[in-house]
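Revision sheet: structure tokens.
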Amino acid sequence: MTQTVYHFDDFTLNIAQRQLRRGEHVLELNARYLDALALLVREGGQLVSKERFLAQVWQGIPVTDEALTQCIKTLRKTLGDLAGSPRFIETVPKHGYRFIAAVQAQPAAADHGQGAAQPAPVTASNGVLIPLAAGILGGAVAGMLGGLAYGFVAASQQQEAGALSVLLVMLCLSLLVAVPGAAGVVGGFVLARRLAPTARGWPLLGAAFGGMLVGALGKLIGVDAFALLFGRAPGDITGAFEGLLLGFAVGAAIWLLERGDGHALQARRVAVAGLLCAAVGLLLAVLGRPLLGGSLELLAQSFPSSRLQLDALGALVGEPGFGPRSQFLTAAVEAGLFGSCIASAMQLARRAAGNA
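Predicted:
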């Protein structure tokens, strides 16, 4: 008889081998709870009544409804699911439960003595390279948009030839900041999730650590480079603290977009994720901690002969020059764009892999 292995999100359920995996990690479940999960997954999308659970999982042994409730609660905890915003197990009040995630079923490899199932195919969630590449691409998109915006502003204030060069320089500079930042944040997120697949808070801490590390290295190299080349360094440009807070916010944005699957709901989640990151950017500006726009202004102030000018941004908020309101606006937009682009790119890659 051909056995079937089930794949959903980054999980693999091999019923014949009595094993649930997340990526390469085996997750512990007792026999009855594994049977309950198998029943739900096999009936993917269909309501499974309480009576059917009792008949097929507990096999007629008298138990209270609390036993089934505890079973579902444990399954949700193992899968990282939430009862109020389910991705996997949906409660149908007074009737039972339904498995709502997309499930891929494939025949298990023939067993020739080792009893080991073939590993699940790499997807956007169960690997590291695919989500990392998607996140970096999202960061690059955010960097391109930000670089073009700053580039057009700076180029518009040039009184001589070279506006195109200014635009290209700003674009490259923005990408130089955004791409390593995205790599650090997303790398920390996915590695932490791989190392601790059942720990909910670790991916957010991993994203924060990755952002902090890249921010610290970027600031160190940037300050040292200016000191070496020009004999003095700019002021307190963006660094570890900014990377830490923004990394945590982007991690939360990624986590938020992974919670739901409906297109209308996802559009709202993208907006909420962007607003969350924008709020962190605004907080950093209030604390006097600059992001890219504020750092560029510090560079321009540190080198008076510089042709870099962002004063035109002040006109958008009714102030002369690049003042506090300009810093608030640019920091919020930068952070919101950065977080929403990264989280959206990772979610799109995850969906594409799931539909492949």
